[in-house]
Amino acid sequence: MAWAFSACSGSSSGDDAAVDLPITDAGGEADAAPPSATPVIDGQLDEWSIIDPLATDPTGDASGGFDLTRVKATSRGTVLYLSFDITKTLNAHGGAGSEGTLLIDVTMPAGRLTVDLRGRSAYPDGDTQKTLRWSEVDYVIAPTYASKQFELRLDLQRFGVKVGDSIKIDFSGSDALAAPASFTMTRPAATPGRRSADRAPGTTVRIASLNTYHDGLTDPPRQAAIGRLVKAVAADIYCFQELLTTPGPDVASTLQTIDPHGDGATWNVHKLSDLAIATRAALKPLPTQSSAQMFAAAAIDLGEKLLVVFTVRTTCCGYIGNPADLARIQQMTELAATVKKLRDGQLGGELDPWRDAPVVVIGDWNLVGSRTPLDLILDATSGPGLAHWQLHHLLGDDTYTWRSETVGEFPPGMLDLVTHSKSLKQHNGFIFDTADLDAATVSNLGLQAPDSQASDHLVLVADFEITN
């Protein structure tokens, strides 16, 4: 069964052969690609530093918000990778109408592909009535938040492009190059690496997060698929979002039925609004801070180790500087203030044992406006100073956590994030999508290949060692 979503699928390029990638234990941004590797569409453009500009464009010549200054390109097989710089911090796929749009035109030996950023569409040969789904051209762009630099990929295979073909790249809308830039697809196809989903030795706690899309945990047409996902990742703590009408006791009973660890244990659940934190360990909810709070938080006793977990679902949609973005900033400001209150012993004596406990903030951040909500949490001067752990898919290096096949929707993006106290040691961490798994793994984990389609978001999994 397939489900259709309308909310604010990509696939990995290359063949099915894969190489194993090591588990990363380093802090901060994990699994960064070396400059010579295939570009990782994650919004970190370090790997582009060794690539010469394909084209430059003068500043101040744009008719709209997108004022191009530099374009770079590389390729792997039939996949074209582009990066471009602009003069103003903007969201690629959302913004004020006065800013106009930017169109990317790729002319090939046997056709033309246009991507209209603000129009959120891709279409062949100038025909706007033949809109393509994002997955049909494997389109992914990053960052999802506003920036002056973007990177993207397009698979041109459906247009008959092959290694050795020359193409032309141009822009229109807000800005254009003086002349189309010529580029030759010269590099061979990349072989995506494959990561393990196993819990690494030394792991103290595995945390999983999923936006269930309108009560998917208990929605009859989808609950079996989501239940298989929940069981397959076998987490110690689950963070759920969009449990809009599912009561906390129903979350607990559903998890007991799923029985992720096969031990028949009782699950303790803290539910606030549409957010839930579930664990077999002892749990104490943190006090609610306001009626506008967009996070749930719980102090968890793991036996010899203590942990505080926040799960979030901030206001959806919008773009930098608009009311939705300002709401997200306020919501994460309140979360940061709550961490400070915990540290200062202002949340009640029963939480004093957790004053110095490590913190994890995980969930659906809806980071589609400014980057400010994330920066507030990473700030060590006035904020909690957490680290962002950028997770990747099990196959390849994709970082998107949300996708839709609805024409006109936003392209795949990284809306779900995990941040954590720097005292926590990262072990295995990944974005779990059944589309990335081979048939044997799907079978061994008791899954079905389409299971991840039961929500428009993918499961995040993060394994930590608590060292203090």
Q: Structural class of the helices, strands and pairings?
A: alpha+beta
Intertermini distance: 46 Å
What string, H for helix and E for strand, traces the elements in order? EEEEEEEEEEEEEHEHEEEEEHEHEEEHE
Name the CATH superfamily classification of the largest domain.
Endonuclease/exonuclease/phosphatase
The major sheet is characterized as:
6 strands, mixed
Runs in which pLDDT lies below 50 for 5 or more consecutive residues are 1-35
> Tally the helices: what do you get?
5
- Just name the CATH architecture of the largest domain: 4-Layer Sandwich
The gross shape turns out to be globular
The average pLDDT value, as a whole number, equals 92
Percentage of residues in helical conformation? 10-25%
Number of strands: 24
CATH top level class name of the largest domain: Alpha Beta
Describe this structure in words.
- With 468 residues, the protein is α+β, with helices and mostly antiparallel strands.
- The protein is built from five helices and 24 strands.
- The protein has two domains: 39-189, Immunoglobulin-like (Sandwich), CATH 2.60.40; 194-466, Deoxyribonuclease I, Chain A, CATH 3.60.10.
- It has helices at residues 220-233, 248-258, 323-343, 372-378, 439-444, and strands spanning 19-20, 55-56, 68-76, 79-90, 102-108, 111-116, 121-124, 140-142, 147-155, 166-173, 181-184, 193-194, 205-211, 237-241, 268-272, 275-279, 282-285, 295-301, 306-313, 359-364, 387-389, 416-420, 424-432, 459-466.
- The protein has a six-stranded mixed sheet, covered by helices on one side.
- Residues 1-35 have low confidence and may be disordered.
